Structure formats: structure tokens, C-alpha cells
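Handoff note, outgoing to incoming analyst
You'll be picking up this chain. Sequence as last confirmed:
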Amino acid sequence: MTSAPAYDPQNIFGKILRGELPCVKVFEDDVALAFMDIFPRVDGHTLVVPKIPARGLLDFPASALGPFMERVQRVAAAVKSGMKADGLTIQQFNESAGGQMVFHLHFHILPRHEGAPLMPPGVAGANAEIETYADKIRRAFA
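Most recent structure output, in case you need it:
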């Protein structure tokens, strides 16, 4: 078994966590940050990242997994409710061979509606629409 490369704090999510890059935030506390994906696969596509620097699931401290997953669950519930979704797809990728593109642990929360396909990857969403979906999700936390 080969070990994964070391965590690089200059990854895009590390920069977002430090406030060096902007994001459309829907939730934040001392454990996690949730924000809108700017390349959404569906309307309301949300990312949840831990504040602990970890490249992927396998190098994330086991003792921190429970509190972080509670946030993933809470954000998922708000996304489902706020987007009035029929269901959710929750994805988490590890390393390039597993489909990971940003090497900071993160979960994708995709609200799903019956019969609605995923949009193609790599297509930027419209800023106004992304903000509208973020507002719906933020309201669902209340």
C-alpha cells in the first residue's frame, strides 16, 4: 500500500477556509463550513468541508469524524428541505483514482428531484442562481 501525498494547505478549500477566496456560504461553525459548488451538477449542489486540514477520509482523525458527520447530516437536511428535493445524492471521493479533484476532505450534497438528470461536470453555474439556492438552504436552517 502506498501512502497518499501530504496535505497541501494551498488547495482551494484551504484558501476558502482561511478567507483568501470567496464562497457562497450556507453554514459555518467551529467544525465545518458548507458552501455552494460553483460547478453545480444540480441546482443547490452544496459542499461541506471540515475545518481540520485533511486530504481525504483516510487521513481524517477518527475522533473528529462523528462531529463532522453530524454537520454533513445537518447540511444535507437543510439542502433537502430548502430545495424541496425528493431525495439526495451524497458523494465523497478519495484521491485522483477515486475521482477527487480538490485534496481537502469534502462531501457533495446534491438535492435530487424525480426524473431530473445531473448536469455535466465542469460547467460554471450562474452566480445569481447560486445565490438564490443558497438563500433557500440558509432559510431551511432556521
